[in-house]
Design brief:
Elements lengths: L2 E6 L2 E6 L8 E4 L15 E4 L2 E3 L5 H4 L11 E2 L1 E4 L5 E3 L12
Antiparallel strand pairs: 1-2, 3-4, 5-6, 7-8
Length: 99
């Protein structure tokens, strides 16, 4: 996987190349899973800065996914649970949990 480097607050930080920063995404639901109850195809939706968590630890079960003990997945430049790299608001599509 190609990496890039940037200087942020006097520290060199590594990031995945071809990342396009962008979060708090607006879109239209294209598909829903069989267990989704609160959304339907065609609904307008918004996705915040966090797009995934384990949903199983103490913090996630308390509704505090942003404090996930296994690490939260953010909208861009983050490794998702399936190993893919999140690409931000300029992604072609995004799969998120209905929460």
């Amino acid at each position: 996987m190609p990496w890039g480097y940037t200087l942020v607050k006097e520290r060199i930080q590594r990031f995945h190349l071809s990342v396009v920063p962008g979060h708090e995404i607006a879109g239209i639901v294209q598909e829903v899973g069989a267990n989704v109850k609160c959304l339907k195809v065609g609904d307008p939706v918004g996705v915040g800065f966090f797009v995934n968590s384990c949903r199983d630890c103490e913090m996630c079960k308390a509704g505090l996914e942003n404090h996930c003990l296994k690490g939260v997945v953010i909208t861009f430049n983050s490794v998702d649970r399936d190993g893919t790299i999140t690409k931000g608001g300029f992604s072609d599509y995004m799969v998120v949990h209905q929460r």
